[in-house]
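Notes on consecutive records. When two proteins share a document, each keeps its own sequence and its own token line. Never mix them. Below: protein one.
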Amino acid sequence: MKKIKSKIFFTAIVSAVFLSGCVTTGEYEQIRADITKLHIENSQLKQEVSELKTRMDKMSSDLSTATALKEGQLTLIAQTQDYVKELQILKGRFEESSYSNDKKFKELSDKIAELQAKLTQPQQPIPQKEPEQKKISPGQLKNPKEIYDSAHVDIKEKRYASARDKFQEITKNYPDFELLPNSYFWIGETYYSEKKYEDAILAYEEFLKKYPKHDKAPGALLKEGMAFLELKDKKTAKVVFERVIERYPKSKEAEIAQQKIAEILKSQNSGKKSTKTKSKTKTKSKQ
């Protein structure tokens, strides 16, 4: 269509020139060549404009992509900075918790060491009062299973010292006995039943050191905390109960330990309130 228009334009010019009678054949050819050149230059110019427009569109697209990437990078940097801050906070909490736990466990270890030192001091033997029934000494039995079963009979009959002797016989002379771990546990139980809580704590601790993953381990640690509670040492008892929850979080003993901690905290809060009330009463009486 454009070519047709150009031809019509060219013909009109040529016609006008010839009609005027002022142009020679050579001038006509020159004019025609100039017009053709202008047409070619015009086409090239249009092509260059089109290419320039294409490049501009591409640059605009690249610029939009770069802007989006920069915004994404800035967002990512901001998120990373937030994560770093959160990580620092969590690290601080972890270090604080770790220090607190280490301190508590050190106090517990010191307490147990103190009990060990206290119980190793020479003391006057206290005669044991037991029901007058026929006792079976470990030496009269043939194998560790018989000794073990006999010890449990003694426990049912509340002959705790006799039962303990038999369990101790097993721990000393039958290291391959399948119920050896249980024997260590029941030594603690005999002491606890006799209300010898300090001895019970040491016995439970020995069992836990030897068999920390045994089925009876949660119960032994819980009873250790109960023994400290019976000794009116609520602070250490709380540490032990927390240890139960930490080591055996899904156990029934952990639930009981949580209840015991709640009871300790409740009693401590009640004591604080009572102290404040007494203080206020004294202040009023002075006035």
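Protein two starts on the next line and is unrelated to protein one.
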Amino acid sequence: MHREKILLVYDQECPVCRAYCQIVKIRESVGDLVIVNARECSEVLNEITAAGLDLDQGMVLKMGKKLYYGSDALHALAVISSRSGALNRINYYLFKSERLSSLFYPPLRFCRNLLLKLLGKSSINNLMNS
């Protein structure tokens, strides 16, 4: 039986994003989570850029043909996540609500952007490169 591939596109240069993507697990019944580095050319990156989604301002989750962006991506991940392990349970409770996700996401994005600046990392600039 063919399992759906669910793509999570994130910034591998961000240590917090990288840690999150290594920890988050989805339920086996949903499909296979495939982690995609937003800094490497790929078909899904082209699709995200064509949709006008700025990867410097949010991660993207692709399920089927639908793209979830920023807080919507975190919320969708929480809904399909496994509850195994303390960090996956925390992820679920923090982001299972669309309202909480949209409340928490802007400060998380700000911290990510500040961290990258402090580390001297460049922006992804996927919209500028299109």
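For the record: The two ends are 37 Å apart (CA to CA).
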